Amino acid sequence: MRHFSFLKFIYCFSIAFLIAFSKIALGGDAEAGKIRYAQNCGNCHGPAGMGLASYPKISGKEIPYIIERLKTYRSGKKIGSNSALMIMMAKTLTDEEIANLAEYLKDAKYEN
Amino acid sequence: MIKFCKVFPFITSVCMLFGIVFHANAAEHAGGMNVPSIKSDAVMTGLENPWDMAFLPDGTMFFTEKCKGLSVRTSSGSVNKLYGMKDTKGYNAAGKDLFCDGQAGMLGVVADRDFDKNRTLYVYSTSTKYHGSGCKTNFEKCDGNIVMRFKVSSDLKKVSDRTDIVKDIQYKPFESNQPFGGPGAHNGGRLRIGPGGYLWVAGGDRHRGVCPQDGKLLCGKVLRIDGDGNAHPDNNPPAGFDARIYTYGHRNVQGIDFRPSDGRAFTAEHGPWHNDEITGLVNGGNAGWDPAEKRGGRSACPDKYCGYEPNQMDGMDPAVRAAYTPMSDTRFDDLMPAAWNNNGFSQGTGSAAFLKGSNWGVYEGRLAVGIMGIAFGDTPAGSRIDLIGLSTDGLGINGIVRMPLGFTKRFRGLVMGPDNALYASTDEGEIYKISASTK
Prior knowledge:
The structure holds two protein chains of two kinds.
Chain A: H1 2-26, H2 30-45, H3 63-74, H4 83-90, H5 95-107
Helix pairs in contact in A: 2-5, 3-4, 3-5
Chain B: H1 2-32, E1 37-44, E2 50-55, E3 61-65, E4 69-73, E5 79-84, E6 93-94, E7 109-111, H2 115-118, E8 120-126, E9 143-152, E10 159-170, E11 191-193, E12 199-202, E13 222-225, E14 245-247, E15 253-258, E16 265-269, E17 277-280, H3 318-324, E18 338-340, E19 349-354, E20 367-371, E21 384-390, E22 397-402, E23 411-416, E24 422-426, E25 431-437
Parallel strand pairs in B: 5-6
Antiparallel strand pairs in B: 1-25, 2-3, 3-4, 4-5, 7-8, 8-9, 9-10, 11-12, 12-13, 13-14, 15-16, 16-17, 17-18, 19-20, 20-21, 21-22, 23-24, 24-25
């Protein structure tokens, strides 16, 4: 009986854990990514990652691509001519924020 | 009690009198402050990096798109594609030598003062035509920016008679180890017609340390020339300098306009992670930018360019950076001090136009300045148009307010229209008409 209760507890705990962290585990939260994007990414890459001036378009990119890029910049490694800016910007991003940004940018569209 | 009865009416009367006076003053202020109502409408959308506009008196608007070319929006609203870059489609004609990369491409456009008689238009663009053998590395002259003169047909459907009146403004051909380090960096590009009908050309330092202070190179300079590309006879640069130079020592000027009250030129230019600047120009003056290595107490710098030093790859206090490589270096005797420095920040200040017309009320005569709002390090974001009142001597400001638009964009080009509205192009691809009215 006592053994059954323990299993029940583990089962319930696992379900609760998965529900609580499913957004991170399964990819990211696009809404949270949109909010984070607006804080300083949009000043260079433009609304919805459309790309502005000499800053590239980043909307429509596959999730693994954005995650890999941001993690590379976060590690301080250079890729391309605007690396100094991106390294500085990515330095403070958490894994969760990177996942959220990637989720948001995958389908982001600028309409005017 | 008797004393109070005598004093009370006196106090009451004084209070009432002051009350009337204060009320009258309030009423007077309400009717006399002349603050305009401001509204904005997108007149064009879906463009690709619209960079600059030029108007004719009937509202016809020429405009450039950085990687596409020159077009015109007629007064009836139809659009004709006049002159494209290499490999663009749909234009009546194209320049096979014209290209875009990074900040470079087809940029400034302005109509001749006598356009109604000569149908002449000037356009700034990047070109391969005059590279010669000078563009093999970033440390060569590399003439890659030109000013073209065109004739515009009377039906506004084509341009002809292209003549390159300036062929030797330098261009950065390769990526370097700098922030924003791609080809085409710091490419200037604004054109305006100033007092007397002369053409003004605003340039950038193209990430080459020696450019701004070198009198033989046109990078990092403001030129004043005639319609054939010849120097204005009254230009007064230092001995040995190219006679077309009006001012030197600039970093990257993308904004220039002339104060209506006295015709004086003011520039707006991007700072290097510190100090965007507005500067009142003086004929032959030095804006004070010198990013060359081994000067001003500095040692060697990456790619011989100290423009982002020290510590160019990371954020730091803008004031520390400014002390190392100042935007306005006070070691120059001929320094033109900046009137405004964006509180020591650099957010991307790229366009400027003086507000003309009584419809702008208390803001008439202020300089509208487009700020991109780039945020890095501890610099705050803030894309906006500021309205700046400049002091008569041009050495300071006497007021600054943010244009109440209700939205933010990266404002790339500002110019006054013939209807006394301010027109603004954005990197997002729109051209806005910003109108003001007073009661």
